[in-house]
Amino acid sequence: MKERLCYWARKKIEGAGNYYAPTVLGNVTAGMTGFRQELFGPVATLTTARDADHALALANDSEFGLSATSIPPTRRRPSALPASWSAAASSSMATAPATPAWPSAA
């Protein structure tokens, strides 16, 4: 393995069989493999943006762009970002649900 996806681990899953536990990778930056590559499995990456313009630049800096979600600092201020994303499906305050009409990697 040339490169590690994650440089820390907090919990090892024990047991028999092929199983990959749901995983959240926090503090992921644009230079990391977890940001650049499509991850398969129950994996979510969390990237923090400096401001709305930076968030838009990060969201559109992907060769995949199937779905994107914005979580604004407060519920009272919904995000206008989803309208500007280069993604097939986008949402604010919730993950984009799987809908048969939308493009999918599956």
From TrEMBL:
<dbReference type="Pfam" id="PF00171">
    <property type="entry name" value="Aldedh"/>
</dbReference>
<dbReference type="GO" id="GO:0004777">
    <property type="term" value="F:succinate-semialdehyde dehydrogenase (NAD+) activity"/>
</dbReference>
<feature type="domain" description="Aldehyde dehydrogenase">
    <location>
        <begin position="12"/>
        <end position="69"/>
    </location>
</feature>
<dbReference type="InterPro" id="IPR015590">
    <property type="entry name" value="Aldehyde_DH_dom"/>
</dbReference>
<keyword id="KW-0560">Oxidoreductase</keyword>
<dbReference type="InterPro" id="IPR016161">
    <property type="entry name" value="Ald_DH/histidinol_DH"/>
</dbReference>
<protein>
    <submittedName>
        <fullName>Succinate-semialdehyde dehydrogenase</fullName>
        <ecNumber>1.2.1.16</ecNumber>
    </submittedName>
</protein>
<dbReference type="InterPro" id="IPR047110">
    <property type="entry name" value="GABD/Sad-like"/>
</dbReference>
<dbReference type="InterPro" id="IPR016163">
    <property type="entry name" value="Ald_DH_C"/>
</dbReference>
